Batch of 3 targets.
Target 1
Amino acid sequence: MKALQDKIIKDGKVLSTEVLKVDSFLNHQIDPELMQQIGQEFADLYKDAGLTKIVTIESSGIAPAVMAGLILGIPVVFARKRKSVTLTDNFYSAEVYSFTKQVSSDISVSKDFLNKDDVVLIIDDFLANGEAAKGLLSIVEQAGATTSGIGIVIEKGFQPGGQALRDQGHRVNSLAIISSLENGKVQFA
Ligand code: 5GP
């Protein structure tokens, strides 16, 4: 997706050979117009998939997921990173090791919002080692629902998550795939 690549080049900050900071349009401040274009891309890719729901993870997956959900006309469910008192024991949960925070935490989704008849597109902002995607896949599986695919805004292709998910037979659509962050420069695959 050209507009996304241009934005990454213009406003992305390479923090290390492994981490890209995109706080100015995706992870802190949000560029709604770009999010709308991203939502449209996901909607075009999955318009014939018979989706009933989008599942993402708070907080940075929510903006692109909501835009896709708006265009596809389906609800968006986001996994919470903390157990809320209002979720009680009526939830599916999974443990996710955070790439950026380097700690494990539980994510959970209420059983009220996902069931065996759902056909799900999983959306997240970044794909690195695939831990977040794995946790979301587990939650969809616990619900007995079907995962149609995984939509990623920025995949770091030099990290193993994307390959592992594709090897497991999942459809993974990444709108930008970064092949390297060496020498402070973003290179696309
Ligand atoms: P994974 O679970 O695939 O290892 O990592 C994906 C998660 O870690 C995403 O939900 C995202 O929040 C975070 N993440 C991974 N790599 C990066 C990165 O380079 N930059 C930012 N901002 N977040 C990242």
Note: The chain has a mean pLDDT of 96.
Target 2
Amino acid sequence: MGLLDGKVAIVTGAGRGIGREHALALAREGAKVVVNDLGGEVNGSGQSTMVADQVVEEIKKMGGEAAPSYDSVSTREGAKNIVKTALDNFGRLDILINNAGILRDKTLLKMTEEMWDVVIEVHLKGTFLCTQEAAAVMKEQGQGGRIINTTSFSGLIGNFGQSNYGAAKAGIYGFTRVASMELIRYGITVNAIAPVAITRMTKDLPMFQGASEEELGPQHIAPVVVYLASDLSKDVNGKILGIQGRHVFAYRMSVTEGVKKKEGVWTPQEIHENIKKILGE
Ligand code: NAI
């Protein structure tokens, strides 16, 4: 008996890194999996069907069921096709993991519009399109569902040289909060993860130098996603779970106690005098 027996899942960007581990872990728990991956480079260029096919083969070798999808998450047609792959092959859809992603890092003053647009399109628009297409099917089925998005430290806290990626990932945070409120009426929960793991996307970053696969590999991320995809998490909605190796925690937007004026309006000078209290420092 698996935690996800009888369920059908889509994992976007499932051909490599974190998404591949999600797909394998979901299949191990009995889910039938659509392995979506465009098979491109880290910067979003190029395309290959081999990347998704390999993971489908791995799942089949384990005795699981899987189907490949090579569409891009960032177009309406692509998102429709990804969901259609689940329906055509497995007849239903219960779980969507929005994981596909690319990087085009540059400091703000050097960033081109193209670098901005393509990153927002894959991460933020892709998450919107796939969620909308999947949630429509889940609503129609009337048996609830699970949607798990992928945000990042970069969007939630900030990271140098990633204004496009950080904006997209912060957008996914806001999108997750709102979608979780709107879709819960259909029994669909929407949560997000903020992973940190060694993949081709991150292996050259200074923080990963000297770190081992065992400590910080993407295999540590998948169990949290399986939990969020399962019935175990039915009371968890609109949450952001951080995972870094063996450390699992939650990100929360916090509001300081601030200061209140008894009457009238604040002056800029008074704001200056109270700034430490306002900032909660
Ligand atoms: P990765 O580069 O190993 O895997 C991403 C996969 O997405 C690739 O196989 C790529 O072909 C696919 N992909 C890219 N654009 C696509 C599109 N338009 N349609 C379908 N598939 C597409 O990267 P990694 O590290 O596994 O990242 C997975 C997710 O986790 C991304 O959303 C990333 O932003 C996020 N993330 C990763 C962190 C890390 O430490 N590795 C940190 C924070 C977030």
Note: The CA atoms of residues 159 and 166 lie 7 Å apart.
Target 3
Amino acid sequence: MTAPAASKTLFEKIIDREIPGDIVFEDDHCVAFRDINPGAPVHILLVPRKPIARLCDATADDQALLGHMMLVASQIAEQEGYGDAYRLVVNNGAAAGQSVFHLHLHIIAGRPLKWPPG
Ligand code: AMP
């Protein structure tokens, strides 16, 4: 008997077009779509197709993927018109604000961004 397939994450369902998403970029490794509850004029989530739950669950095998995502994030910020002023955020774990357990980079831009973040 085979084990039942693990249920898909919310973001896998968006990637697979099972639920709607405003997709702005995709390639063989990752997909980016607009956050449903944006915290800035530009608020895009960049998600690897591989369902890594949290950044701390990534392994050395994911090194190229993670580097690729950084470069894609920069490209998306440029595409959105904010190539020289954007912020990337990864919330790792519930106590750090993570609510969807499929690794994602928040790409935030389009307003002044204070430091430190809340
Ligand atoms: P985090 O809290 O870091 O896990 O970020 C999860 C993000 O996913 C939040 O900013 C949510 O607004 C966003 N989000 C939740 N559901 C959706 C959805 N269906 N489409 C797009 N973004 C979503």
Note: The CA atoms of residues 85 and 112 lie 9 Å apart.
